[in-house]
Write a structure and sequence with these properties.
Low-confidence stretches: none
Largest sheet: 6 strands, antiparallel, barrel
Structural class: mainly beta
Mean pLDDT: 84
Distance between the termini: 22 Å
Number of strands: 6
Number of domains: 1
Strand order of the largest sheet: 1-2-3-4-5-6
Radius of gyration: 13 Å
Shape: globular
Order of helices and strands: EEEEEE
């Protein structure tokens, strides 16, 4: 995991998904809630379900994260340490949450 200060963030993407990124000193997790808002028209026909939706997944590395960018994360989706690359649609908003977030 990249060296980042512990924090919790809620972010939305152009596809309408809502994510919760929780960064702790030794571990980080990413939780995706599909189609929490209306997707941008160009993305409306894309599938909205992904493996492990609504479940915290361990983040091995954050490659890209910022407003206007596609989020790029290396995840341990299977739980066995085999990395999976997950790319989000462009990030439209990021909100820092106070303390560890229990839910988005």
């Amino acid at each position: 995991m990249n060296e980042i200060e512990p924090a919790s963030y809620k972010f939305t993407t152009a596809s309408g998904s809502l994510y919760l990124l929780e960064i702790a000193p030794a571990r980080a997790t990413l939780t995706r809630l599909p189609r929490e808002s209306v997707p941008e028209p160009a993305l409306a026909d894309r599938p909205s379900a992904l493996r492990k939706d609504e479940q915290p997944v361990e983040v091995l590395r954050i490659l890209q994260f910022g407003i206007g960018l596609n989020g790029i994360f290396v995840l341990d989706l299977r739980g066995d340490g085999v990395p999976t690359l997950r790319t989000t649609s462009p990030i439209r908003g990021i909100e820092a949450l106070e303390g560890p977030a229990a839910s988005p």
